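Hi C.,

You asked whether I'd gotten around to modeling the 316-residue construct. I have! Everything is below, sequence then structure, no commentary in between.
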Amino acid sequence: MSAELETSEGLDESEKKSSGASGKENHTRMVDLSELLKEGTKEAHDRAENTQFVKDFLKGNIRKELFKLATTALYFTYSALEEEMDRNKDHPAFAPLYFPMELHRKAALTKDMEYFYGGDWEEQVQCSEATRKYVEQIHYVGQNEPELLVAHAYTRYMGDLSGGQVLKKVAQRALKLPSTGEGTQFYLFENVDNAQQFKQLYRARMNALDLDMRTKERIVEEANRAFEYNMQIFNELDQAGSLLAKDTLEDGLPMHGGKGDVRKCPYYAAKQDKGILEGSSCPFRTALAVLSRPTLQFILATSVALAAGLLAWYYM
């Protein structure tokens, strides 16, 4: 204590002012909401980036059917988020972050749904259980604690503007989607000329919100809660993947496409060589049956979608 007093007394007036200004600047930087979110969710980022599902997605190990279902999960998620954003567009804790022309994704996702499913897509899809829980949380926040809505908006949109672009290219390459954007309209922000500058503007607006420290801490908690929802969905993915593997594979043999001469199928050929063809069936048909289950479809879809969100956050 005495050493601190001696040091302070030894400074002239200009040095004291300079030191005080520097300390105030550092304190302001530490309580910026964007910095608090970055630091406060770092552990969640680390868990997300190391999931096998994210690694596989980056490698392009995703089928078109799953990508279609991922788009479905995104549609339900953003429909809920943007409904609550519209509801709270005049709320002082969110109004400065309301950019419907620049950010809203529901209209783009509707185009993607029509591309993948056709004009009657609304009759073909439903919200999965895991997506429903997250959607319910978004609605709860928007209707009861709108000051926390920024946690969901910031996590989603800032990620979409950065890492989401990486995912777009991966999907187009892996699934051979049109380079003109059909099927990936979700990633196209037509009213954002410079993504980096817009993200800076968004963070500045967010940091300027008139929030006390406890509210900022609650926003960080809500962002981590969103990550927990994501991790629960990855657990569902592991269970669904195990079920799919068990039901579709036998002796590690590949599956044919269910068309043409089944005698050319590696599965049947192997069985025939063993003299046990009678009474057996190709696992391809079992795979189709498993994938046709709505619950399994949407568990997989939501997992893809939220994996994309987590990866996008990491690339911000």
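If it helps when you're writing up: Residues 186 and 210 are 31 Å apart (CA to CA).

Thanks,
B.
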